[in-house]
Amino acid sequence: MNFRIVHALLLRYIFLYTRSPVRLVEMVFWPIVDMLVWGFLTIFLRQNTSGSFPHFITFLLGAMILWDILFRAQQGVAISFLEDVWTRNLLNIFVAPVRTIEYLTATFAVGVLRICVTAVALVVIGWLAYSFNVFVMRWWLIPFFLNLMLFGWSLGMISTALILRWGQAAESLAWAVPFFIQPVVAVFYPVSVLPAWLRPVAMALPATHIFEGMRAVMQTGTMSWAPLCWAFALNLVYLALAGGFFVWILNYTRKRGLLTKFSTQ
Amino acid sequence: MPETDTRETLLDAVELTREFDGVKALDRFSFKLRRGEILGLLGANGAGKTTAMNCLLGLTLPTSGHIFAFGKSLQAHRIEILQRCNFSSSYVSLPGNLKVWQNLLVFARIYGVAQPKRKIAELLEMLEVAHLRDRVTGQLSAGEGTRVNLCKAFLNDPELLMLDEPTASLDPDIADKVRKVVRRLQRERAIGILYTSHNMKDIEEVCDRVIFLHKGRIVAEGTPEEIVKRSTEHSLENVFIKIARSGDLEDANGKEPTP
Questions:
Q1: Which has the closest alpha carbon to A138: A229, A222, A56, A227?
Q2: Strand-strand pairing, B85-89 and B38-42
Q3: Same domain, yes or no, for B70 and B164?
Q4: Alpha helix (H) ranges present in chain A?
Q5: The domain spanning residue B181 has which CATH number?
Q6: Residues B177 and B197 grouped into a single domain
Q7: Are residues B173 and B62 in the same domain?
Q8: End of a domain among B157, B177, B199?
Q9: Same domain for B171 and B66?
Q10: Which of A149, A173, A215, B207 could cross-link to B40 by cystine, CB 3.0-4.6 Å?
Q11: How many CA atoms lie within 13 A of A45 on its CB side?
């Protein structure tokens, strides 16, 4: 892998975001709206359930922030690809000496930058509006962030591969794919709430272990390392599978001549 | 091109066939492009030029056949080959939301250009678009955009250049300047250039040799003058029209069999 090329591709996205304040606003607008809606909802529920759920605010706001980490990492990959499609620049990239791994690594890096911007905004708003301190999760935050980011990258590669295969008509998948798994990974509720037949599916997804771990840390101040190890191991498997899927679809589009359609759509 | 040509072969397409749903867009298409040569690829819409270009750039894989560039298989050495090539098309744009210098800087870094800012300034000057350096690419006119695309194509001093209708949206004055720049670079740096155009003036002025494609097959090959001489027509433009309509260089009772 040539890091000079990764840096060049990343530079392009940085130029893009710094030239367009609208894009920067988009990165924080929806997360802040979500944060406000969920925050006020949890205050309302706490007030009307006679304190039966003392961790409502921390659970829901913590889950919301962590979910956004996953979502932004996925968006970093998928939206970066779509930016190339929208600007009809994809062919310039694919006829340049850019390896698939370099292209993907640059989009991963965009995901990290998006996460940084969004996370700072959410942490500040959570603190100011609801006195919610995300650092209640202490050092556990680091493996939580890392694992959700890795899973976001996998989902990003899958979304991008599907858009490559089905063309620009399928671009809504860039936003839809994470929400497809959201009900299963137990973001806002424990896995025990899911029907028994769905629990094995949930446990096969790395994000589930993170959200379960987050609730354990918030309730007890600690958690076992086993779920984190599971999440990390599953992430390695998903990254390998998603990367393989992306390369397979890319080769398929070359064989079918579909890649060139992105310059004319 | 006579077999005695000793110039290095930069690009060698061998029996390229590309089918789309059973229809052959390219049919056993073979040619060689030598160092310092400008080869025109001509044909009506749907003749197979774009498919050929896409195969040669590695964007589309041929159904059968092989492509070698600099003596190496494109499929096995794609990145190494692309480092020594470049491409410009009137139909592929640089990101419209970045400034001209930003777009060029990104590609200069991708290609590992030494002293990128100096190189960019040089090319913008050469193509007479230095005043557009700080303009947003999406706000350029078609002609300006084409010239900026050409700057991108020359960034890495390519040894092999593919130009897809580079003068398509240019006024006669700018088109003339672009042709002169292409010619000059080819002479000075001995670049091999594959050139497609629907403008026969372009072809006659720029190309050393041309290939006419019809339904994915080569129907005529030679210098523009040779092809006109071999046909019953008086100009390359008329030869183009004839081939587009009949698929042949000669009439059924013409003087020479179709190659």
A1: A222
A2: unpaired
A3: yes
A4: 3-19, 21-48, 56-86, 90-94, 100-130, 141-166, 173-181, 199-203, 206-220, 225-256
A5: 3.40.50.300
A6: yes
A7: yes
A8: B157
A9: yes
A10: B207
A11: 15
What SS3 class is residue B6?
coil
Q: How many domains does chain B divide into?
A: 2
- pLDDT tens profile B43-98: 888 888 888 999 999 889 999 999 999 999 998 999 999 999 999 988 788 888 89
User: Is this complex scored with an ipTM above 0.95?
Assistant: no
Q: Do B148 and B140 contact (CB within 8 A), yes or no?
A: yes
Residue of B54, B94, B105 lying closest to A257 (CB–CB): B54
Judging contacts by C-beta atoms under 8 Å, the chain B residues touching residue A94 are 58-59
Instruction: Answer whether A168's CB lies under 8 Å from A186's CB.
Output: no
By C-alpha distance, the chain A residue nearest B57 is A95
Residue with tokens 């603190």: A127
CB B110 within 8 A of CB A99: no
- A-chain CB neighbours of B20 within 8 Å are 257
pLDDT in tens, B99-149: 999 999 999 999 999 999 999 999 999 988 999 999 999 899 888 888 999
Residues B171 and B184 both lie in one domain = yes
CA distance B170 to A98: 30
The alpha carbon of residue A139 is apart from the nearest alpha carbon of chain B, in Å, by 38
The answer to whether A138 contacts chain B (CB < 8 Å) is no
The gap between the terminal CA atoms of chain A, to the nearest Å, is 31
Of B80, B82, B96, the CB nearest to A95: B82
> B62: distance to nearest CA of chain A, Å?
7
Rounded to 5 degrees, what are φ and ψ at B53?
-60, -45
How many residues can be counted in chain A?
Answer: 265
